[in-house]
Design brief:
alpha/beta; two-stranded antiparallel ribbon; Uracil-DNA Glycosylase, subunit E
Length: about 220
């Protein structure tokens, strides 16, 4: 697995790539991709970084694990490849956008269009074995993605972090709330959303208000 990542990230992450844990992670990933079906495809593992350069980050959304079904994961959290049915969490995200800012429910669940505007769609774990949720957790990805979050916090200002659900909320310890905006809510999964913890959070209009307040272009959700 070559680390093919947008050049803008390299000054900030090169030290991570050299660390023993990351080298061990690469060995594990190479072996698992050779011996099992894994997602996303190898060329898309770093899609979140390649669609959103370090300089362009305005918003960070943190997910947990890639989708583990065929053709779903494309390297961006919550996003699916064009033409793939929308998973339940993504359906609820689009429903909230529809209610919050009156953007019609889209045909495509591919969120590259967000990433290209400066939304880093970061899963805590960047790979998974087919049909086995969480199978690549605790192999080193979380160490890497925690370093990514802290690096953004340390080296940027006025980034809007959207932390959905208990797992993502724990990442707030890595973020300097004095120089960034942190919005939290329940997770968009049906379990949480249907109990009233997701719908009505208005995170999409709130994010755009904060961006405009700080002099940035709002996101076209």
């Amino acid at each position: 697995m070559d680390v093919k990542i947008n050049d803008s990230w390299k000054p900030y992450l090169q030290a991570e790539f050299e660390k023993p844990y990351f080298k061990n992670l690469v060995c594990f990933i190479k072996s698992d991709y050779q011996n099992h079906t894994c997602y996303p495809p190898g060329s898309l593992i770093f899609s979140a970084f390649n669609h959103c350069s370090f300089n362009d980050i305005k918003v960070v959304i943190i997910g947990q694990d890639p989708y583990h079904g065929a053709n779903q994961a494309n390297g961006l959290c919550f996003s699916v490849t064009d033409g793939v049915p929308h998973p339940p969490s993504l359906i609820n995200i689009f429903k909230e956008i529809e209610k919050d800012i009156q953007v019609p429910y889209p045909k495509s669940g591919n969120l590259e269009r967000w990433a290209d505007q400066g939304v880093l769609l970061l899963n805590a774990t960047l790979t998974v074995r087919a049909g086995q949720a969480g199978s690549h957790q605790n192999k080193g990805w979380e160490t890497f993605t925690d370093a990514v979050i802290k690096t953004i916090s340390d080296n940027k200002e006025h980034v809007v972090f959207l932390l959905w659900g208990g797992y993502a909320k724990k990442k707030s310890r890595l973020i300097d709330g004095n120089k960034h905006h942190i919005l939290t809510s329940g997770h968009p999964s049906p379990l949480s959303a249907n109990r009233g913890y997701w719908f009505g959070n208005k995170h999409f209009s709130k994010t755009n208000s904060l961006l405009e307040q700080d002099g940035f272009q709002p996101i076209s959700w």
